[in-house]
Structures are given as structure tokens and as C-alpha cells.
Amino acid sequence: MAKGKDVRVRIILECTGCVRKSKSVNKKSTGISRYITQKNRHNTPSRLELRKFCPYCYKHTIHGEIKK
Fold this sequence. Notes:
The model has no long low-confidence stretch (mean pLDDT 84). The radius of gyration is 15 Å and the shape is elongated. The protein is built from one helix and four strands; from the N terminus they run E-H-E-E-E. By secondary structure, it is mainly beta. It has one helix at residues 16-23, and strands at residues 8-15, 34-40, 49-54, 59-66. Strand 3 (49-54) and strand 4 (59-66) form a beta hairpin.
């Protein structure tokens, strides 16, 4: 039996601070922090943003949902 679209989907959260730093000429960070989590598609149809710890920035920053 085939399921329809799943209600809970896996998403990737990426640090917005590291993305801005990596585009600049002076690279201070050596990578981009990413987290994998799940969200309910019906309850949160918009993009998810959470404050998570970034090991490259050494502080809590906003991590936004990106496409796979």
C-alpha cells in the first residue's frame, strides 16, 4: 500500500551567520553548521527557524530551513 505525502518531513537547518561569513572575503569560520530535524507539514507550512548552537561561530545563532 502506497502512502500519500507524509505529514512529518525531514528538514535541514543551516546557520545563517556562517553563510554570511563564508561569502565574505575574510573567512573566519571553517565550515557551516547544519542540523537535521523533523517538522509537521500541516502545522508549520512556512520555513522553520530555530536558535541553535553553532560550533563554528561559538554562540547560539538562528538556523533556517534550507532545501535538500
